Amino acid sequence: MRRILLAPLMVLFLALCAPGIVTQAQAQPARGAISAEELELQRMLQGGRIEGRTTLPDAQSEVLIQPAGKAWRDFHNVTLAWVGGIAVGGMLIILVAFYLGRGKIMVEGGLSGRTIQRFNLLERANHWMVASCFIVLGLTGLNLTFGRHLLLPIVGAETFTAISLWGKVLHNYLAFPFTLGIVLMLLLWVKDNIPNGRDIEWFKQGGGLIGKGHPKAGRFNAGQKMVFWITTLGGAAVAISGYMLIFPFWGEFGVAEMQLAHIVHSVISVLMIAAMLAHIYIGSIGMQGAFDAMGTGEVDLNWAKEHHALWVEEQQKRETAARPAAQPAE
Amino acid sequence: MARMKFLCDADRCIECNACVTACKNEHEVPWGINRRRVVTINDGKPGERSISMACMHCTDAPCAAVCPVSCFYTTADAIVLHDKDLCIGCGYCFYACPFGAPQYPRVGNFGGRGKMDKCTYCAGGPQQDNTRVEYTQYGSNRIAEGKLPLCAEMCSTKALLAGDGEMIATIYRERVQRRGYGSGAWGWRTAYRTTVNV
């Protein structure tokens, strides 16, 4: 009986000892026990790097072999190319199909001829600063992934290098006004972009894009709120990861952090580009009267009533309240 | 044509850094750039090994695969070189390289990394062989003179071997058989997807 009880205990004891024995063997290898081949294979399969010490005052040089480079290569050459291609190309196809199917969305009641101010000069100036930066940043960024396949064969190696070099300089420097604009945008519009119950209703009705009728909306409808949050949150993520790439190996950041920063930066960027293509479409050729909001800042009253009924009501109420009481005629 | 490779016999390397110095001197490599370095693993512990590492001139080179401007090319001797007139200094090759070979001169403002610099296997660059321009951009071209890389030629313990892959693998194999141990060809599995069977 005792032996029967002891047997499982022995097994347990051996099982507990076994890992200890293995680690000891790893810690004190005999001469020739270290194998480059096995170590490389192990790190490749399990992740991690082969690191050591150098006499150079550069932490990067201490990494002997980093297998993660392979994963980053696959991301850059395969994953990013597909994600970016599908996101940007797919969005362009959707927009063309939408334009051909739905056509330009007209103001149903026709233009009234009377206007109401939608965005003031500061809001518009900031919008266009961010927009122009974004277009250049987007194109120069896409060039780094797709230019080699699309542009390089057409313009030749030297011209392509000149374009890419200037593109890189622009990309680096325009990051600063872009970030400033994003911060300003957040401060200017966040109060009108807090999601609420009406947004659910807006989505249920297809935002007036699909089908007829306009769901009621305040200053910004749910679609615009989405654009706002994509711009601010996406912009913040792209800015933070981008600054990590501008200032390489700053502080404790090593090659793994740089790879991660690039992955975050590029994936969010291509998704933002896709979203902004839709934004550009609906703000220009996609909808009658929409461009005026960011153009002159004055939108047609009928357009405003159809798309932002609650906001118009609010504006008009405020205007009535602000108007001084009529002076009695003497 | 030969298939040029590096092989560092870590059981012979004494971390004297002569290869690093020879490289810097031969090519007048600027301050802050190290085309070759010696990494010591398990430093001060049993199983300590020093490995001299530079660009391994990979088969299916990751740097060339990710370069946004396609500035890399492979010579007939399978040496991976790049054209500095086309390089934009984006840093992508450094992210992809398993060996940390690409180096960047820290010139200019933020993000301005300058043209990438790396081990050329003492084979210069796309400029005409052994001209002043080639030397300024890439360093000397010993391969064009029929010589092997200086780092390996200068190695005091003959730990670092350079030459045709088959030939240096044979030398290493004979060594290991004679002395009875050897940690293998560092980086070969990663760079060439082969190993030296002893």
In short:
The complex is a heterodimer of chains A (330) and B (198). With 330 residues, chain A is mostly helical.
Distance between the termini of chain A: 119 Å
Give the termini separation of chain B. 25 Å
How would you sum up the major sheet of chain B? Answer: 2 strands, antiparallel
Number of distinct helices of chain A: 11
User: Can you tell me the CATH architecture of the domain at 116-322 in chain A?
Assistant: Up-down Bundle
SSE order of chain A in H/E notation? HHEEHEHHHHHHEHH
CATH structural class of the domain at 116-322 in chain A: Mainly Alpha
Task: Report the radius of gyration of chain A as a whole number of Å.
Answer: 30 Å
Helix/strand/pairing class of chain B, anyone? Answer: alpha+beta
- Strand order in the sheet with the most strands of chain A: 1-2
CATH superfamily assignment of the domain at 116-322 in chain A? Answer: Transmembrane di-heme cytochromes, Chain C
Count of distinct strands of chain B: 6
Mean pLDDT of chain A: 87
Strand proportion of chain A, as a percent range, falls in: under 5%
Described by the principal axes of the CA atoms, the overall outline of chain A is elongated
- Bulk shape of chain B: globular
Q: What helical percentage do the residues of chain B reach? A: 25-40%
Q: Would you tell me which CATH topology of the domain at 116-322 in chain A applies? A: Fumarate Reductase Cytochrome B subunit
Largest sheet, spatial ordering of strands of chain B: 1-6
Quaternary state of this entry equals: heterodimer
